[in-house]
Write a structure and sequence with these properties.
The complex is a heterodimer. Chain A is of the alpha/beta class. Chain A has 18 helices and 24 strands. In chain A, a hairpin with a 2-residue loop joins strand 11 and strand 12. Chain B is an all-alpha fold. Chain B has a domain of 200 residues. In chain B, 71% of the residues lie in helices and 0% in strands. Chain B contains 13 helices and no strands. The chains are: A alpha/beta, B mainly alpha. The interface between A and B is medium-sized, with 36 and 23 residues.
Amino acid sequence: MGREILNMSRITKIYPNGVMANKDVSLSVEEGEIHALMGENGAGKSTLMKILFGIEAYDEGRITFDGRDLVHAASAAVIKSGIGMVHQHFMLVDSLRVYENIILGLEPVKGPVINAARAIAETRALGERYNLKVDPLARVEDISVGLKQKVELLKVLLRGARLLILDEPTAVLTPQETEELFGQLLLLKKNNHTIIFISHKIREVMKICDRVTVLRAGRNVGALKVAQTCPEEISRLMVGRDVVLKLDKRPRREGPPLLEARGLSLTNRFGKATLKKVDFQLRSGQILGVAGVEGNGQNELAEAIFGLARGAEGQVLVKGRDILGLSIRRIRDLGLSYIPEDRLTLGLAAAGSVWQNLIPDRADSPALKTWGFLSLRKIARHAGELIEAFNILCRGPDQEAGLLSGGNMQKVVVARELSADPDVLIANQPTRGIDVGANEFIWKKIVEMRDAGKAILLVSADLNEILELSDSILVMCEGEAAAYFEDAAAVTEEELGLRMLGYKSKEAAAHGQK
Amino acid sequence: MASGISIDFVSFAFATIRVMTPLLFASMACLVYTKGGIDSIATEGIMLMCAMAGAAGAWLLGGPFQGLLFGMATGVALSFLFGYATLSLKANPVLAGIALNILAGGLTIFVIYYLTGEKGSTQSLSSGTLPNVRVPLLADVPVLGRILSGHNVLTYVSLLTVAALHFFLYKTRSGLRLRAAGENPQAAESVGLSVTRCKYLALFIAGALAGLGGAFMSLGYVSFFSKNMTAGRGFIGMAAESMGHGVPGGVLLATLLFSVSDALSVQLQMMSLPPELMQLMPYLVTIVAIAVYSRHRARRRAAGPAADPKEVKP
């Protein structure tokens, strides 16, 4: 320990569309350590690792591994030099057997035939050595996610990797599998392997990592020794916000509850529980912000309530009536509206015109018909009104929606959903990836709704948005409602960050006493 | 069979094997395409053009064996063309396949008209046929000998192909890489394999097999090319591949099922039943078999991999 094995210095990467993914990022990893790389989604962790692995090119900077320069090396050369990566989405061929996946590309042969006996024996021996026991003859499609991860580790180890990059390895694992993985990582460390551990979860990092490098918005914000830091410090580094927009809003006037979830649970198609007995109440005149590191159930929560994710259990009550299992049409008729997370897949038909995107939920309305047929004249008038009211910049209602700017596309979605005059609005990432002007406009519209006595469930990955808009905040972590703050104004970023990262206040207190 | 309709078992079994030959080449070609992650929809058109190329090649180059090689080369060339259009130029494979199939229907007629002045067949050209083989020893076995011996040389080749493909796909390095690249190209690339190379290998093998199947039609099944003579065998090959779960042995069994129904329809036509109804049979069997298979697969998928008991919270 102590010798520097990897040095990435002042790496800068700007994508062709102008997005700066990494700016002057440096990373130094010592031999035999487990080094955590932390940061929120979009902080630039993945880009940095892709650069190291030769998948992405970089504009500036220098990479040295084991004393040698890796000058824009291709993946194959990087693998050869002793770096291996376990991708978050496994790179396995499902119908092949475990040993076939492990030896793929390096098959031992006897004459024209693959020497299966030797490959199986090698797989077994490697598994014994690193305590990664997997049946070499099992088919990958038949084994659990935890075992698949072991196969990936074996694959990397067989290729002689001394530096292993694990991209959010615990995201797909159960708590027991996570414990097992940690045991294996410590064993690898003992064998003098170096590990870069990408994670969102402070608890895990505190537990097994030696040092941590934190990225925020594409820049280094700190490199710390885990033993000399505390969760609060890491959290502050990760989620400290750069305030872009401020909002003035009136104090809230709350009314009766409009939406209530009781024990809402959801299991995804891989059998993983993505929502675990979530309870909350949303009242008239209230904006409830749902915060969390992406992938902790916020999107599932929005989709389960609106009927997009089928098979949810528990109850979702609207005006005292359970809406789970109802059709989306019925849910809309009961006064719910939905701004979906991704405007291009669910929000809009990009190839359709602006007016076509403004009316699908109300195409049956008599107000748009003459003699039972759609009246283009009435539709054009209605669309014109919405375009004006929501300030949508377009050449006219006939312009193709997909040709608008991101902000104006989003305004089309917002115009449709808000003009439906809902009692409850579920806004899932309502301002993601749009310009400041459109952002401010949409915020204003949402606050107007609240002041008119409507209820808004705001799901957002943008902490600034959550803190500025919300009256109350619900924090999701690993599918659970990890915390609820009745008064959003009294919440500190640090507190919010800790809860998002799965650190319970009790643990924080216990850690502080140590 | 009841009510006095009797079928000579030996000649029926012999006919089954005979009609199985082109189907087997077709289904093996589809198997290789599918394993390589390539759409197999163009097999029909490639086979038809190879049937034409086989007859024309035999006439131009002076012998059925030359014709056979010319047919195979045509198959490989067309297969590469399809691969180039879909892999390199990113054309939609279904559209490219339909285009190739329609092109085959028209182009073959154009070429035979150009060569013979007729639009229906190349019967006026003397292209000859590939020989039949009397298998030593086996021929002398009673009943079995009369069923299994005396077939065209390509019939035996087709059966050997099944074993050879099994060996290639499951025992060799190239076979493993071909399967990996076909099923999960990203995974293959992540360990440094060239997916393009694997795919072109699949295109080569499948094209050659489709060429063999097509050439058999005009150089073995009969001794001339006639328009649309493959008559959907490429599509039946796709069905057999799917029904046989994508393993050579299974695909062989599925092909045998189609061949039995094909042979049966020929036999039944000789009786006083409406011939159109009988000609319908192979296609009817295809639909029923695919329906049964799809239902089986849907059910298996619905059951899904058993939920990991560890994930159930106490």
